[in-house]
Design goal:
18% strand, alpha/beta, Rossmann fold
Length: 303
């Protein structure tokens, strides 16, 4: 089974797990990564499943009338918050490859009464959007799961208008992972083994044509995921959730979440990985020619 199918299966289970802000642990995870209680109260509880590693809507500088796209939109947490910022003259578009997540997000859209929201069942490296049609692309702890991250970066550059921007919360590596972590399928689905280094992240975005790239360690404690019912990683199932099918048919399916929890007991993920804020600006110039700074106070960058 491919890694994409395993990730899709995992998220399908998450979508039907019933996790929501009504569970104190799930709400605590969201708050630990930058969502206020007031923000969470503005959207259906089921839109938050405790899968975030940041809050991209907090530094995307969204404005009324803009078109914003969320890569890996899940239950609609960031899409619904973004929709409020762009208003009825703008559009918030969610992209997710998991049918169960799209169904959940549609239910949350209806509950929220959001008329400027739409969802597409698609991969984030094959966006069903026209060239230069988007003002801002956001994402929350999803790009690390993509097997071809350069294809994702290229697609983002394709759909963004000149002057458009990428504002992403993600997991990136500060140093190489131990082999036990880097070779673990459980750690990949847990948002760790699939992450790339901060330097590689920056290089990939520049190769896609972005003229400005800023990547900042948010300083969040990645062990905060343990607040949500024993969850060990951003994508790790809690003890009450069903396990993923394993590639190795010789193992029992229940070993999958237990493997990740055991790994996270032996290793402090904060030593190797970080929750990062990623900001990139698409210009009409090449990266080498672009020298125009962008004021991003949330990233510590001011004009």
């Amino acid at each position: 089974m491919s890694i994409e199918k395993i990730v899709q299966s995992k998220y399908g289970e998450m979508a039907t797990s019933g996790r929501s802000s009504e569970h104190s642990g799930v709400k605590a995870v969201a708050e630990a990564f930058g969502y206020s209680a007031e923000q969470l109260a503005l959207i259906p509880a089921e839109a938050n499943m405790g899968l975030s590693c940041g809050n991209p809507t907090a530094f995307a500088s969204l404005k009324p009338g803009e078109v914003v796209v969320d890569l890996g939109s899940g239950g609609g947490l960031d899409v619904l918050l973004a929709a409020q910022k762009v208003g009825t003259t703008g559009r918030a578009i969610g992209i997710d490859m998991t049918p169960e997540m799209i169904a959940l997000a549609e239910r949350n859209r209806e509950r929220a009464g959001a008329t400027n929201v739409e969802y597409h069942l698609a991969r984030i490296d094959q966006l069903p959007l026209s060239d230069a049609s988007v003002d801002c692309v956001i994402s929350n702890c999803v790009i690390n799961l993509a097997s071809d991250k350069q294809a994702v970066f290229n697609e983002v550059a394709r759909v963004l208008k000149p002057g458009g921007r990428l504002a992403v919360s993600d997991i990136a590596l500060k140093r190489d992972l131990p082999a036990e972590l880097s070779d673990s399928l459980a750690a990949y689905v847990g948002c760790v083994a699939g992450a790339i280094s901060i330097d590689d992240y920056r290089a990939g975005l520049k190769a896609a044509g972005f003229g400005q790239v800023e990547i900042v360690d948010a300083g969040s404690d990645l062990n905060a995921y343990a607040l949500a019912d024993g969850q060990s990683g951003c994508c790790a199932p809690g003890p009450s959730e069903s396990a993923l099918p394993l590639v190795d048919a010789g193992q029992t399916s229940g070993a999958f979440p237990e493997e990740l929890r055991a790994l996270m007991t032996r290793y402090n993920v904060n030593d190797y990985a970080a929750s990062v804020k990623v900001f990139a600006l698409k210009t009409s110039e090449s990266p080498a020619e672009s020298a125009t700074p962008c004021c991003q106070p949330a990233l510590g960058k001011c004009c």
